[in-house]
Amino acid sequence: MPSLAGVATGGGARVTVLEAAPTPLRRQLGPGVGAHLAPWYAAVGAELVTGAAVAEVRPDGIRLADGRELPADLVLAAVGSRPATDWLDGAVPRDVRGSVPVDATGAVRGLDGLWAVGDCATREHPVLGAVPGGHWSAALHDPDATVAAMLGDEDTGPAHAPYVFSQQLGHDLALFGVPDEADDVLFRGDPSGGATGHEGWAAFYLAPGSRVGTTPDGRVAEVRAVLLVDSPRDVGPVRKAMNRTGRLRVDLDVALDPTRRLRDALA
């Protein structure tokens, strides 16, 4: 939706974006990080309305749950997607999203000799927990471990980390791992200073209570997800480091200092 809003405003349209959550992209990035994306809308000329539950879509616009009415010539609803697995009902276990729960190899839980891979599967990652399918990295990497398991090869190597990239309102985003709303977030650079420019910054997600160790060279922590914003040169090093062992440990003193190379912080 942000990408469409940016294109529409660039074409001269007057755009209002309604977000049911208190911040944009809260489910994907968490509330603290999502709040830093809100100024991006005004920077491209779009109006962002958060906490807006839609009660009715009419030919002439929108009526919100709080009674407000917003006129519109065109309404676009971005509602996401769910796996089309109803045909498996009663035969294969599914979660509340309709996904088939599988282990790290793609084996369906509770059913011997059956595997699931791709958009329909929610795969267990040894560090990140349950990771839904539905993005290109799952389609690219998951079949390797599944085929190896089907052929009896137990050594499938480290689990790859989910990787999603996008351009939102003129900013490049790359997300590795699966953030959780409860994660502790540490920032590299100033996320509040890049609304109109392209000053790169990053967010590191640590599980609550994560142990931060100390080495002779500094503090080291295990990170469950990383968001890179307008930092293309860091995408490759972070992706390789996160896939190397399935766990990403970073030297916080280096990682949080934007004057130093991020690749030097990756252990």
Structural class: alpha+beta
How far apart lie the N and C ends? 36 Å
Strand content: 25-35%
Number of DSSP strand runs: 16
Radius of gyration: 21 Å
* Strands side by side in the biggest sheet: 9-10-15-12-11
What does this protein structure show overall?
The chain has seven helices and 16 strands. It is of the alpha+beta class and 267 residues long. Strands 9-10-15-12-11 form a five-stranded antiparallel beta sheet. β9 (163-168) and β10 form a beta hairpin. The longest helix has 15 residues, at 136-150. The radius of gyration is 21 Å and the shape is globular.
List the helices and strands and how they pair.
Layout (H helix, E strand, L loop, with lengths): L1 H9 L5 E4 L6 H4 L1 H5 L2 H6 L3 E4 L3 E5 L2 E4 L4 E3 L28 E3 L18 E5 L3 E4 L3 H15 L12 E6 L2 E7 L6 E5 L12 E6 L5 E4 L2 E6 L1 E5 L5 H11 L2 E4 H4 L12
Parallel strand pairs: 1-2, 6-7
Antiparallel strand pairs: 3-4, 4-5, 7-8, 9-10, 10-15, 11-12, 12-15, 13-14, 14-16
Descriptors:
267 residues; alpha+beta; 5-stranded antiparallel sheet; 3-stranded antiparallel sheet; 7 helices; globular
